[in-house]
Amino acid sequence: MKRNVRVAAVQFEHAPGDKQANLDKIHDFVNRAAQGGVEIIAFPECCITGYWFLRHLSRAKLVELAEPVFDGPSSQVLVSLATEYNVTIGAGLVELAEDQHLYNTYVVAMPNGDCRRHRKLHAFVSEFISSGSEFTVFDTPHDCRIGVLTCYDNNIGENVRIAALQGAEILLAPHQTGGCKSPDPHTMGLVDRALWEDRHNNPGVIEEELRGPKGRGWLMRWLPTRAHDNGVYLVFSNGVGVDDDEIRTGNAMIIDPYGRILVETWKAGDDMVVADLNPELLDVSTGRRWIRTRRPELYTPLAVLTGVERDTREVRFDGEGV
């Protein structure tokens, strides 16, 4: 980063399968962000197509919902908005690749007309959606270098470290998380839908739930660490509200390279948070100093199979764990 960059993280409740409604929300947020001088805005994982309901769809229905990237209509809408408002925009959808594979893909459209994609490395929502196999780190017109890791990708510390080693200064971390069903009493848990439905009458009650161990409390155990240990800014966007039979917990936030939260929201509804990222914090950050002391010759075991590895989908749905 050569200068301060203003970024935004968005949380919103998507409409499952209604791409136009979701793109309309994206348009509204981009308009607001641009008026406030935002240069980079991150929307949640699969927020264009919808997410958790995907697990119920047949392959034929998924193909019907999916689109090509970069030539598909949703990608083109993002490119058009990026160029019109002079803002880099990241948003997720289901991609239909040329080889007919399906991917959980995050599209990043830039105001110079360039467009990049990240195929989620640890996809699990559907047996018909494949996992990607490439890291996504690239330069932007904003004098900064961006990395993208989608939801579960961020759970694996090695993924964030590789993005940092490839020069990521700002990590976009789109999610659909919080409020997940789990047999583990120490990991999230379902949010009572009745609390969500009554949010306008009792906002304090649902906001306390979103900030508690099912949402923000869980994030605080690990998310700031990803930013701190790798010396990157982290832009966390998330779904909020009804996502099929679960309630997403939002908590959109922006974290600095020291793991400090610059700005956040726990609103029970659509919201956006904005922060100015200072390049001077990057090089002096603890994480970057630690990275300089790495001894790669010791780390060969990290790339060797141990025999305990399992497919992400198998692990994720083993007793509905996280």
Per CATH, the architecture is: 4-Layer Sandwich
Q: Count every beta strand, where a strand is a DSSP E run of 2 or more residues.
A: 14
Global mean pLDDT = 97
Shape: globular
**Multimeric status of the protein:** single chain
Description of the structure:
With 322 residues, this protein is an alpha/beta fold. It has a single domain (5-316), classed as Nitrilase/N-carbamoyl-D-aminoacid amidohydrolase. It has eleven helices and 14 strands. It has helices at residues 19-35, 59-65, 73-85, 157-165, 193-197, 203-211, 216-219, 223-230, 280-284, 286-291, 312-316; strands at 5-12, 40-42, 88-96, 102-109, 115-119, 129-130, 136-139, 145-148, 170-174, 233-243, 246-249, 253-255, 261-264, 271-277. Strands 1, 2, 3, 4, 5, 6, 7, 8, 9, 10, 11, 12, 13 and 14 form a 14-stranded mixed sheet that branches. Strand 7 (136-139) and strand 8 (145-148) form a beta hairpin. Helix 1 runs parallel beside helix 3 and helix 4 (157-165) runs parallel beside helix 8. The mean pLDDT is 97.
Furnish the topology, listing elements before pairings.
Layout: E1 5-12, H1 19-35, E2 40-42, H2 59-65, H3 73-85, E3 88-96, E4 102-109, E5 115-119, E6 129-130, E7 136-139, E8 145-148, H4 157-165, E9 170-174, H5 193-197, H6 203-211, H7 216-219, H8 223-230, E10 233-243, E11 246-249, E12 253-255, E13 261-264, E14 271-277, H9 280-284, H10 286-291, H11 312-316
Parallel strand pairs: 1-2, 1-10, 2-3, 4-6, 8-9, 9-10
Antiparallel strand pairs: 1-14, 3-4, 4-5, 7-8, 10-11, 10-12, 12-13
Question: What's a quick, concise take on this entry?
Answer:
The protein has 322 residues and is of the alpha/beta class. The chain has one domain (5-316): Nitrilase/N-carbamoyl-D-aminoacid amidohydrolase, CATH 3.60.110. 27% of the residues lie in helices and 24% in strands.
